[in-house]
């Protein structure tokens, strides 16, 4: 490594030394994000935003395939609407931003910047819905929301974030439940297929469910540091909001009924998940499905005749098929470029130099395994295509392995405390189902019940924490 | 038309009777939009939002082809930042919404909901820009903005709207000017090619330019009622903001310089333009490029054997190639469906009934000309493809014709007043270039100078309004 290279590769704090600092170093040095002048608000830079665009594109297709359409509802919600559903206002009022003035005039009623849109959407649904023939309502919106947070970290918890929120109405409880689980499943498939991020899916406890929900379902991922990330939630809202907002329709017998209601959302938080599940001490490792640049071509000895021409030829060949970039900057050495693109997590680097050209080959470097191999230029496209697939599978495999290694079965409170002290992760344990017991666990250890997984295992008959009769097997963890 | 049909087809006020009411009827009855509980804020329903998605998709591609990348900047801007550029704050402060409380706490500094993002973006650019090697900065964002409006109308003027805002930095004035005009040209091509909406392009007068701009360029379209719509603007901001925000870089000689700056935006206002340029007394007429449904298939006598099967077959055949819907609802008559889809502006309706099947044909109805012709099922795809193209060309042709018929050359103030009284439209006239003269025209007539068009014509040597020496030929109109 030349002096110049060393100068460039600013140190990323190793994750074993200080995980939080590692995260901050990575997001700042890879130009994903920046802090803004307003505390707790982030600027998503183009490299980070491009990841979000790739997530959006995939998910929006999945939503549309399942019959959902996008709408746009207003940013500002009157205080009186927010207050209509009692649990909801209690949950959200403490963390909303209030608009009190429009231009020079004080408003007669305060407006909150949407923290989520159930209330304004229900208000509109109450005007739109007439007959059972109109059902189901299957709408989604992509937007930003604001929740005033005291302690923030880019992508993971910020006072503003980007997300999608789906809001649907159905004739029956069963239809709403089916929708809730269908969307959770789409989230799970997005996480695992697109982001190579394995998730545990299940139901939230009463304490942890969404303010105003009948039942909340979640997907939970495990990060490198053993903390869990709630990566997406889907709520069966029952008739709580549809009653509070007096949404009615005439059913097949002509009777007035309240419909059943769901909402579901994922956010830019997913990007935080990608970073903390796949990243390493060199920086980002991006899954090919969302990497803004899937392949970077770096010419070697580019001043030598024919090298730049060949690099350009390969670029033209791959363009349109992959998200590819040619790094032909003449003020940086190949070594400097290698370091930069590795830090930025580009899945594949193609190196092409005079010797490669002689042999009709290129070197393919894979970021996930830091390995290089020569590939014939005759099969370059196929080789890249296969390697991207392989990288995706490998990332999912490695993430599952990491998670499994950090998942423990515990039989007692003490055992959990010990495990969490030594090497934190997911804990599987039997639980009584009581709120007091859950609150006690959290107060004592900071550990929370992440979910009651759909895949139950029988780990015994008594609650590991209070000794009462066990009701469920649950996943616990410290969480972001 | 059966009784049921008549019942359904609620009257749309004819545009000749009351254009404003016609507009309101059309947007409400076609489910484009709804009013929200907050005055001046609109809900964009799925049919309206799908138009916006089609516009976004086209434009986003054009932006990316020309090297622009998307980012996301915070929704809330500190008051102190808004105040940094003097003209800018004067222009926007009276119409911003102020956030004064986060949760239960009063904020130390008020935050405005972005009315546009020059200030927050310049603040970030000042941190990011170091060297001439970093230039140009070519970033865009898709978001919503809030401007507190006293008098609003959906899509045309609302207190919140969706838009894109591009913000770029360049080494030289010439580069910035080239960018400004390049983006205006992309806007013009979007308007004419995608929306079939002819526009006049040119420069805004000093009075009408963007608050803080060095020069503002605009595209202006003429609506059915003879009023102009400013449909998109591109600003050369010179060094106004880059000086105020102290954005500097070291140039090729190592000297510190302020870069040159542009911004450019179009909004959901374009949808208002589409409605008022192409619509008629039956409702919407949507250009094929943005129509959420390009082709609707309506089976005739669908209870007869084979009809629904055939309709489904056609649907499968066209799906994936066009945005197509099969209207197989059994509780509406074909006549009712015809009316509904015509009102919703769907470019092509395919009717298929027993007699058509016998003859191996379908009837193709085109919304723009309200004409029907039989087409062999052997060439259906090709016929639909050709007809969509033809409809697009025809809409542009008709809109140009309408505009030309409503464009007048005037030589005096009196002549303009007379013309504007009888049948309003675009007025072309010579103008002295003086602000007082411009203000006098507006105060007397409500007519404004829409732009100094790039295509100048020599209509004389004296200002039509004050008699002084003429400087430019300008377009004038009453405007939305």
What does this protein look like?
2 copies of one chain form a homodimer. Chain A is about 35% helix and about 25% strand. Chain A is an alpha+beta fold and about 475 residues long. Chain A has 3 domains: about 20-280, Bira Bifunctional Protein, Domain 2 (BirA Bifunctional Protein, domain 2), CATH 3.30.930.10; about 295-405, Anticodon-binding domain (Rossmann fold), CATH 3.40.50; about 405-475, Translation Initiation Factor IF3, CATH 3.30.110. In chain A, strands 3-7-8-14-11-10-9-22-23-21-20 form an 11-stranded mixed beta sheet. In chain A, helix 3 (about 45-65) crosses helix 7 (about 175-195). Chain A is globular. The two termini of chain A are about 35 Å apart. Strand 5 (about 95-100) of chain A pairs antiparallel with strand 5 of chain B.
